[in-house]
Amino acid sequence: MPKITQGQKVGAKLKKLLKERNLTQEEFADKFGTTSRTVRRWIKDFPNLATLEQLADFFGISIKDFFDE
């Protein structure tokens, strides 16, 4: 079984948070002040630390929560 990367964990958590809040990637992008293309990239790849901090603030979680199972 392939090992899950840290970037995949962050992407999976971001997708889960969007689903829990009934937000599409486009709706979230509008609220967060970015594009849906950028959101898709964050889900696929690891965002930088500054963005990760902003995402954690937006969702009211800690950065550590992005890496928890």
Structure at a glance:
The chain has 69 residues and is mainly alpha-helical.
Question: How would you sum up this structure, described in words?
Answer:
The chain has 69 residues and is mainly α. It has a single domain (6-63), classed as Orthogonal Bundle (434 Repressor (Amino-terminal Domain)), CATH 1.10.260. It has helices at residues 6-20, 25-32, 36-44, 49-59. Helix 2 (25-32) packs across helix 3 (36-44).
The count of β-strands is: 0
- CATH H-level name... which superfamily? lambda repressor-like DNA-binding domains
- Helix and strand run: HHHH
Q: Which residues sit in consecutive blocks of at least 5 with pLDDT less than 50?
A: none
Provide the helix percentage: 55-70%
Radius of gyration: 11 Å
Termini separation comes to 16 Å
Strand content: under 5%
The shape is globular
Topology-level CATH name? 434 Repressor (Amino-terminal Domain)
CATH architecture verdict: Orthogonal Bundle
Question: Main sheet?
Answer: none
Number of domains: 1
Overall pLDDT metric? 90
Structural class: mainly alpha
SSE blueprint:
Layout: H1 6-20, H2 25-32, H3 36-44, H4 49-59
Helix pairs in contact: 2-3
What attributes does this structure have?
single chain, mainly alpha, 434 Repressor (Amino-terminal Domain), globular
